[in-house]
Amino acid sequence: MNIKLQTLKMRLAEVVDLQRSSALLSWEQQTYMPPGGAKARAEQLATLQGLAHRLFITDEIGGLIKELSNSSGQWDYDTDEASLIRFVAREYERESKIPTELVAELASTTALAQEAWASARQNDDYSEFQPHLQKVIELSRQRAECFAPYDHLYDPLLDKYEPDMKTSEVQKMFSGMKDELIDLVDAIKSRADVVNNEILYGDFDIDRQREFGLCIAKKLGYDLNRGRQDETLHPFCTHFSIDDVRITTRFDSRFLPSALFGTMHEVGHALYEQGISPELARTGMDTGVSLGVHESQSRLWENLVGRSRPFWLHFFPQLQTVFPDQLGQVTHDEFYRAINRSEPSLIRVEADEVTYNLHIIIRFELELDLLSGDLHLNDLPAAWTEKYKDYLGIVPHNDSDGVLQDIHWSIGAIGYFATYTIGNLLSVQLFDCAQKEITDLESDISKGNFDGLLYWLRENIHCHGSKFTAGELVKRVTGDSMDSRPYLNYLHNKYSNIYSL
Ligand code: ZN
Is there a smaller number of Cβ atoms within 10 Å at the N or the C end of the chain? Predict the structure, then answer.
């Protein structure tokens, strides 16, 4: 083993350990920490993240990267060694541009902002959150400015979540999709009576929901010896190692789909993390390559599998036995149509597949205006309302269902939202490939057998972690680059069928 590579790996392992310990504290903050713990937690997170950053941008690591890059020709491009050198060189170049003090300040500011957001959301009081958001935006702007010159101030923020993606590419992609989506939403609106989802509202015991959700999670391949489920205000998936990948869920006793599809979504993320090659552990490459690719995995399981007819051929009879009073008289077809009902709504995480991306486009456009200074925070709720009226034809009646609904801005995740739509587009491109390459996939799904699909995803996507860039990975699997056409075609086909358009 190359001694320099060995040393680099040892240094990286220390950095990764600190980052994962910090992630554990963040998970605990969202699951069990009493609100009073926020101030001390903010300090702890700032210390840990600052320490991890300082340990990473040392001259020693910089020197090792330089020397190893010069001799990287000795390893084939696809090897773990060559991939590690490319990966760390990119990360090092990016992180060295940001002062450690800013990293620490962002960590403490967002830990406090998160508590303020949770309280503001509960109290439906935007003014409680606004000063925290102001600070998050200022620090995000400072972070972006570290990367000057850039084509767009938003580029460095986007790059954190979707490396190599440019703001102009997202703008082009969104403007290409927007009108077509709005037209489809309008077409469905004119046929709204065709699909009814009243059966999904009622009184659904939360313990039974949890048990059924976990039963599906295990069937999909989620290994609970290396994972667990907890409850949070905002569902998410996090990991501290390949062998400790956790999901959280939000349960609603009055609306069945929230936790049901939320669980499948987070399990999709968890399967990705659990499927990464153990060889990559503690290198930093032991995580999904980009948030877009990550989201492609959650959306693939949630929508392309979980909202499909074949899936419920297997699971609906079981669900009926769990909720006999509510669903005993419902047919498979009625259930399938109900869970796919499309209607403009206020809450992104519960939006159907057609309207979902409009929620994302709204947030993306607002973030650009906030960052550029064209939109002042005092005017944010009004701008939010205006866009919802324009794109979806509905308006929120309070800020909890409007600007306060998502956790992202409070945790400093500005530049993040676009990756949800990228994930949707990729989910269809990847699933199309899986369908071509796996014989009888649909029939397997209708029997509750997901082994073939999971194996295919493991081999083609999961095991690689961050060895390749997102663009490289998509090209390797699909032979193509990211494209919105397959996704739009999928939506047209599925919803023309459901709504007889
Ligand atoms: Zn997700």
Answer: N
Cα separation, 375 vs 360, whole angstroms: 18
Predicted confidence (pLDDT) per residue in 233-248, tens digit: 889 999 999 999 999 9
Q: What is the pLDDT of residue 253?
A: 97
Backbone torsions φ then ψ of 323, nearest 5 degrees: -125, 65
Q: Determine the distance separating the centroid of ligand 1 and the alpha carbon of 297, expressed in angstroms.
A: 8
Give me the catalytic one of 266, 273, 365, 367. 266
Domain edges within the chain: 3-149, 167-499
Q: Within a 10 A sphere around the Cβ of 395, how many other Cβ atoms? A: 14
The answer to whether the CB of 284 falls within 8 A of the CB of 418 is no
How many angstroms separate the alpha carbon of residue 295 from the centre of ligand 1?
5
Retrieve residue 44's tokens. 């702890």
Element (H, E) at 473: helix 470-478
Ligand 1 is an ion; its neighbours by CB within 5 Å are: 295, 298
Give tens-digit pLDDT for 389-423.
999 999 999 999 999 999 999 999 999 999 999 99
What is the DSSP-derived secondary structure letter of residue 287?
S
**Please, are residues 267 and 247 in contact by the beta-carbon 8 Å criterion?**
yes
167-499 carries CATH number 1.10.1370.30: yes
